[in-house]
Amino acid sequence: MRRFPIANHPDLRRRLLLQCGSTLIALPTLAARAAEAAVPAASAPTPAQTEGPFYPRVLPADRDADLTQVVGRSGSARGTRLYLSGRVLGVDGTPAQRVAVELWQCDVHGRYHHAGDEGLPRDDDFQGFGISATDADGRFAFKTIRPVPYGGRPPHLHFRITRGGQAALTTQLYVAGEASDRDAVIAASPSGTLARLSIRLTPAPEREAGALKANYDFVLR
User: Fold this and answer.
1) Using CA atoms, how far apart are residues 113 and 121, in angstroms rounded to an integer?
2) Is residue 10 scored above 90 in pLDDT?
3) Cβ contact 90:79 at 8 Å
4) Residues 6+ apart with CB under 8 A from 115
5) What is the pLDDT of residue 14?
6) Is the pLDDT score of 130 beyond 60?
7) Which residue in 23, 80, 127, 213 is a FRET match for 8, CA 20 to 30 A apart?
């Protein structure tokens, strides 16, 4: 079979050049798409909320991430166990490493570890305040109790996230379906805040009988 040089066939040569050009044009586009896929999706920062009057004036000596046990006491906190975990991320999706996540809440009687609560019943076996430091993946975890309503407010948890010694976010989380926009703190927040600050509690029999679990990711500016 005779072979003809491409140079002797202008139409064939033109088609080959067009195909090569299309391939070269497509390569940067494919590379750009791959790079975009490697970058985490951007997220809106977690809404901030008031710290409230109940941040401990004096931090307890025992301030680890298990609020259901107090060092030196043989009892354990009253209330349903709640295992809460999640991550702290930047708006670009990168993990926030070695930041302090502080959690505080009232006990089953609606009492905080705070001056001004004197005279009310108190669960001395509940730590009331704890700190969990994020790991290399930005993860944190707490063992606490299911929050309860008090003083007309719905069940909620208080959080403050500190990075480099500076407070980066102060906010509250609510139990899904148990808070509404009529709550004074929520009503003072922009529309849609409650939906973004709600956690869904689900059974956690793998942890212990009757326990609950929830997950939430905080996003910092």
Assistant:
1) 12
2) no
3) no
4) 57
5) 54
6) yes
7) 23
Determine the Cα–Cα distance for residues 92 and 8; give it in Å rounded to an integer: 56
CA separation, residue 89 to residues 6, 24, 37, 185, 217 (Å): 58, 37, 18, 25, 7
Looking at per-residue confidence, does 1 or 38 come out higher? 1
CATH class of 81-220: mainly beta
For residue 14, give both structure tokens: 């033109």
Q: CA-CA distance, 160 to 55, in Å (whole number)?
A: 10
Rounded Cα gap, residues 165 and 162, in angstroms: 6
185 touches 152 (CB < 8 A):
no
Confidence of residue 161 (pLDDT cuts 50, 70, 90): very high
**Strand residues in 91-200 grouped as ranges (E):** 100-104, 129-133, 139-145, 156-163, 166-175, 198-199
> What is the identity of the amino acid at 155?
P
* CA separation, residue 74 to residues 37, 63, 82, 85 (Å): 52, 17, 20, 26
User: What are the tokens at 74?
Assistant: 């043989």
Question: Per 3-state DSSP, what percentage of the chain is helix, strand, and coil (rounded to 5)?
Answer: 20, 30, 55
Q: Which two tokens stand for residue 64?
A: 């680890």
Residues 43-59: pLDDT tens digits?
899 999 999 878 888 88
